[in-house]
Amino acid sequence: MEPRRVALAVVLMALVLVGVPLIFPNPPAPVANGTSPADSAATVTAAAPAAPAAGAPQVAAPQGAAMAAADSAPTPALEPVDTTTVATPLATYRTTSLGGALIGAELHKYQQLTDGGRGRAGTVQLARAGDPLLRYRLVVPGDTIALDGVRFRRTEGTATAGRQVRYDATVAGRAVSLTYTFLPDSYRVNVAATVAAAVPGTAEKRFLVVALPSAFRSSEADTTEDHNHLAYAYKVEQQGAEGVPFRDLDPGERKLDGGPITWAVAKNKYFLVGLLTPAGAPGFAEVGFTGGVRTGKEVTQAEGQVVMPLADGAVAFEVYAGPQEFTRLVAMGREFETSNPYGGWMQGMVQPFATMVIRMLLWMKATLGVSYGWLLVIFGVLVRVVLWPLNQKAMRSQMQLQRVQPELQAVQAKYKGDPQRMQAEIMRVYKEHGMSPFSSLSGCLPMLIPMPVFIALFFVFQNTIEFRGVPFLWFPDISVKDPYYIIPVLVAATTMLMSWIGMRGIQSNEQQKMMLYLMPGIMLVFFFSMASGLNLYYFVQNVASLPQQWLIAQERKKGAGPVVQGPART
Fold first, then answer.
1. DSSP summary character for residue 475
2. How far is CA 390 from each of CA 1, 175, 447, rounded to the nearest angstrom?
3. In 115-173, where do the E strands start and end?
4. Could you tell me whether strands 302-309 and 83-87 are parallel, antiparallel, or unpaired per DSSP bridges?
5. Distance CA 553, CA 401 (A)
């Protein structure tokens, strides 16, 4: 094989295999130039026993409404503070009469994972102690009022859709109500809010600002990995989803985006809390995100908020507080399945391919009924079987190139002083062997076809909750690394075996000998801390490739022999 092509192959493989996490980072969160229309108002906090969360960004009316600071706080009601618990088949939610906030969600189907996935420590709780999932501010002319300290009156009832909990209070002379409707067979909660005008009949601009979770309680064995996935995401109508990782926001840094906003979420690795506009309703007016205080290398908190205009004093929205189950997110509509953006700056290409891979795996799971571990084994073999003809063609093309190399080198040496003649003779050699200068490229391309699947699986394994906590063989959880590091070693070993077989029947040079040891080392380093399921898939790919490599090596040995060059041309 030509030394330059070997060196190029080494560089390409190193870039692809080692550089995947680097070339597909989460997109940095740009800081919006200028200030939000909401920055002009002062925040007036309602007097109450509980204060709003520290570091909460000040919010005022969007669209340039000027707000004057108010010295008076709303008079606290004398209602008692109570917590209401609503249980559905899938989750248990908790709300409080203090601010009418949603303060907790417990997911019955999902266990907290401990000890690398070997143990279980109760069901998943989304809210971190002291951090509500949703809290509210009210923006009216002259005031931005945090509702955290306002005591609401609670009433309960049952609607067609599910159980209802309603909170009512008078805030700054305005009747305010918040109504939660808990859907029984879903992780969805419908919320309706009304705010009366201070003077009945007047066209008063009012806005409801909903604060997204500023943090999550980690339920994963690897809390660092979980914290690395903390992010906000949102979707502007007619545009793609955009992610805002917590770590990309410096303390106090703000990012703003105007509407109409279809949905906005806060999420960790496997769970999320999202706000969606009802189908067909106008989008939210604005989203804003602010970097939280950092106490170490891990970034565990930030601030996110959604500004909703109150049309005729009312607004309705949907809350999804649950797992990132692909089928459930798809069922929500509004492209909510993209609330976990894949691929960083190449999201436009990676996200559709990752979605296709997820759909295929879920279909195979439903059809075959096997565990996800065996599913990855079947999927790895299936990919190799489908690509067998293309790989066969590519390998034979490479073999043909190896045979013609001595003749090409002879031409290059003979006519090195005459570039035009050299080019003509090279074309003659290619033509005599039924090849073209692009044969090397066309021979390599089929070998790159499995790479998109691998890249898609790399991202799929980062957040696909269907793989979470799934044991297989000695793996306690295929979504985390092998605790014994057996599978990365097997990947490296099979890579070396493939290289050794591939060198049979050819006269190896120093570059090829270097590749024999370099590639397995690269694979070992890259896969050492990757999810065991991803390692399993690649190991199966290697094993499934061995028969084809062996057959090509035997074919090469049978056709080996001295290259017969044609008579010298002058």
1. B
2. 20, 70, 8
3. 119-125, 135-140, 143-146, 153-158, 163-171
4. unpaired
5. 15
Peptide bond into 520 cis (omega under 30): no
Which CATH architecture is the domain 31-340 placed in? Answer: Distorted Sandwich (2.70)
> Of 28, 25, 24, 14, nearest to 452 (Cα)?
24
Q: Compute φ and ψ for 535, nearest 5 degrees.
A: -60, -45
Mean pLDDT of 166-184: 95
- Residue 28 above 50 pLDDT? no
Q: 268 and 233 in contact (C-beta within 8 Å)?
A: no
Query: What are the domain boundaries of the chain?
Result: 31-340, 370-387+447-558
Which helix (H) or strand (E) is 215 found in, with range?
none
How confident is the model over 341-376, as pLDDT tens digits? 776 667 777 778 888 888 899 999 999 989 999 999
* Per-residue pLDDT reduced to its tens digit, 368-408: 989 999 999 999 899 888 878 777 777 777 767 767 777 77
Can you tell me the distance from the alpha carbon of 535 to that of 85, in angstroms, rounded to the nearest whole number?
Answer: 43
Let me know if 219 is exposed, middle or buried by CB neighbors in 10 A (0-12, 13-18, 19+). Answer: buried
Q: Rounded to an integer, what distance in angstroms lies between the CA atom of residue 279 and that of residue 208?
A: 19
Name the helix (H) or strand (E) containing 335. none
Residue scoring higher pLDDT (211 or 478): 211
The single residue listed with the structure tokens 């050699």 is 429
Whole-angstrom distance, CA of residue 60 vs CA of residue 41: 5
Cα separation values, 34 from 89, 256, 302, 349, 432, Å: 47, 10, 20, 31, 67
Quote the tokens at residue 217: 């309680």
The CA distances from residue 246 to 36, 119, 336, 427, in Å, are: 20, 29, 20, 57
Q: Quick check: pTM over 0.85?
A: no
